[in-house]
Amino acid sequence: MTPDEIKSAATVLFEAEKTGVQTGLLSVAYPQINMDDAYAIQAELVAQKKAAGLKTIGWKIGLTSRAMQMALNIDIPDSGVLLEDMAFKNGAVIPAGRFIQPRIEAEIAFVMKAPLKGKVTRAQVIAATDYVAPSIEILDTRILRADPATGQSRKIFDTISDNAANAGIVMGDGRFDPASDLRWIGAIVSANGQVEETGLGAGVLNDPVEGIVWLAARMELYGQSIEAGQVILSGSFIRPLECPADTLIEADFGPWGVVSCRFE
Prior knowledge:
Strand 8 and strand 9 form a beta hairpin. This protein has about 260 residues and is α+β, with helices and mostly antiparallel strands. It contains 7 helices and 13 strands.
């Protein structure tokens, strides 16, 4: 894709978010799109948001589970940027119309006390982490899930361009040791009191810490790095849950406490 096409695609996504009206698939509009193009569109989209006054607070890692990778016919995760308007307090009420088609996932969040760049080890990730916390990620899509003319589903390039479907983060209240065995940290996730999903941290690359290892290496390819103070969502260990109006989400992390939000 040309620089002008990349800027145009990012602008369309930004407008879709502001208006609440989804745009068509970029993979249809630009059949030649590749992974580098998608991350370039994402970077331009984030640049436009930062130019509008928003600040970066961290990163999210997506598509870490084997099931989700197989669904999209890929073998690697993806990533997106967390911005300050995405942060919600535990128990937050999400106003009607705030998102287009919100969904949620349960994740372990890493809060960094030191920077990470390039190829790092698991031990280096743990040493650079201040604490980990239970969290809910809110997903949204500014791109149609399928092309109305052909029925073609979104591709990985669409998702990455759309900031990896990033929309919000609800952090739990507790702070926990990143050196603990995070593979066995799990959650029971309910919607309006009905248990919909359960999962363990092992669903994230067999160890959520490995998600951070992957992210640091990927970011270096694009001249980026993890900074101290940033929040990193390590990846979901449940399938995404749809959140239509009047949905109360509760993610019970057991000894780590409950993280919740309600969609008006």
